[in-house]
């Protein structure tokens, strides 16, 4: 009887041990690899819509799909604009929390409006009490750098990113030679100067998307250029002997859609519906699909009613915006927000906008979704992820760098399955389990006999 029971216990323990062995990550020498020191490169290609690689030959991006992780697409936060979205990725916070609510620094009282590239250096626009990943990582002993990534040029609570290169006004976005030099530079920071985290930003394909439109052959040409750059990056990682330590995430900040123009549609000119000078004390309305304005005292209802009559847009009181926008609690956001229907640009008084493509529209629109790829020692191969919100990239990066995250609105549960050695959102058996099981086995055996 005792022998039968002993055999049963032995078989159960054998099953548990087999399950433990199967749960061990296959591609890494030990189960603790995810937690050990690794380096991380985050690359953002501005305005890389989720499907831009589907009508162009992109061998290197395709290779990433079976050599790493590909998400079907990911969703930017509202609003779908460069600085707000990039800052959500690097902080894991909604726009209403980090308060970088526009590409342009503005002041509704003084009517100050600062151009995007100048705003990149203005700490008072970026530093609102939310710490970006660079600073958090530095405070935990890591060395970080930002190469052209929005927000990298600011100070946070007086602290600068260890090394920051800020994009100058007039920077040429599509110079392939410079793209390669930037990759060489960043890889040498990892291999020769022991940096742990670098964020690298490229202004394409956003620029071409605006100038020519997402369907233009030039957009396809720039995607081929990006693909060659990804190939150059892969070769560079090998050349710098970073294959076993460097994880790479490639993503973007929003998509792009074709701007609808006359004679196809009636373009939106808001001054047709309300006298802006008389009713508004501040406005940014000539900026793609997203507009903001501050009504003059006592004029809010009049503004809202007038805008409600304008076709092809939705007008919101800040307080009444859908919770899913995560914009309503912002202190900085003016009281009235206008979001145009997909492809309809907002114009205040005249149509001076020459862009063929734009963004800033509702993040539920497929044209606003963007790419996500990841590869490196901690990522599974040939893993196709379901879509997720870009806010969840932040806890993933903290996990990859093995640092404590700041309070954030993201969750690792959307990305944990991409990682080697994680199961059901990250619960792993301890490497000491076999010893413990042997002890239990011996203990039970001796007490039963
Ligand atoms: Zn952008």
TrEMBL record:
Record protein name field: Zgc:153896
Superkingdom as given in the UniProt entry: Eukaryota
Keywords of this entry: Signal
Organism, scientific name: Hippocampus comes
Matches recorded under Gene3D superfamilies: 3.30.1360.180, Alkaline Phosphatase, subunit A
UniProt cross-references to SUPFAM superfamilies, sorted A to Z: Alkaline phosphatase-like
Family annotation (Pfam families): Phosphodiest
Signal peptide, first to last residue: 1-23
InterPro entries: Alkaline_phosphatase_core_sf, Phosphodiest/P_Trfase
């Amino acid at each position: 009887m005792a022998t039968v029971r002993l055999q049963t216990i032995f078989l159960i323990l054998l099953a548990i041990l087999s399950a433990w062995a199967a749960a061990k990550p296959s591609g890494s020498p030990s189960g603790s690899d995810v937690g050990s020191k690794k380096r991380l490169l985050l690359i953002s290609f501005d305005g890389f819509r989720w499907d831009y690689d589907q009508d162009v030959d992109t061998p290197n991006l395709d290779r990433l799909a079976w050599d790493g992780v590909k998400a079907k697409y990911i969703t930017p936060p509202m609003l779908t604009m460069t600085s707000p979205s990039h800052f959500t990725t690097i902080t894991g916070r909604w726009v209403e929390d980090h308060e970088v609510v526009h590409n342009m620094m503005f002041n509704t009282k003084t009517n100050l409006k600062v151009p995007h590239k100048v705003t990149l250096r203005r700490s008072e626009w970026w530093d609102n009490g939310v710490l970006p990943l660079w600073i958090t990582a530095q405070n935990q002993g890591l060395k970080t750098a930002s190469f052209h990534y929005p927000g990298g040029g600011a100070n946070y609570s007086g602290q600068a990113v260890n090394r920051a290169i800020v994009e100058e006004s007039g920077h040429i976005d599509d110079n392939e030679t410079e793209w390669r030099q930037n990759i060489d530079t960043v890889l040498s920071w990892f291999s020769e100067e022991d940096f742990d985290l670098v964020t690298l930003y490229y202004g394409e394909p956003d620029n071409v998307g605006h100038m020519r439109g997402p369907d233009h052959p030039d957009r396809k040409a720039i995607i081929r250029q990006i693909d060659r750059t990804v190939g150059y990056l892969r070769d560079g990682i090998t050349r710098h002997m970073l294959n076993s330590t460097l994880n790479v995430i490639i993503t973007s900040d929003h998509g792009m859609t074709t701007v609808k123009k006359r004679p196809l549609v009636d373009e939106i000119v808001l001054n047709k519906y309300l006298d802006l000078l008389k009713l508004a004390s501040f406005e940014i309305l000539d900026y793609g699909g997203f507009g903001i304005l501050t009504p003059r005292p006592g004029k809010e209802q009049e503004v809202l009613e007038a805008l409600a009559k304008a076709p092809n847009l939705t007008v919101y009181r800040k307080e009444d915006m859908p919770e899913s926008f995560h914009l309503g609690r912002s202190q900085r956001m003016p009281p009235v927000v206008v979001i145009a229907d997909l492809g309809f640009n907002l114009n205040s008084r005249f149509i001076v906008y020459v862009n063929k493509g734009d963004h800033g529209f509702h993040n539920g629109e497929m044209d606003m979704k963007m790419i996500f790829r990841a590869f490196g020692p901690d990522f599974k191969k040939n893993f196709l992820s379901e879509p997720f919100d870009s806010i969840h990239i932040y806890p993933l990066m903290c996990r990859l760098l093995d640092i404590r995250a700041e309070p954030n609105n993201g969750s690792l549960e959307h990305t944990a399955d991409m990682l080697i050695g994680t199961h059901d959102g990250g619960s792993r058996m301890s490497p000491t389990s076999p010893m413990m099981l042997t002890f239990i086995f011996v203990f039970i055996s001796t007490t039963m006999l």
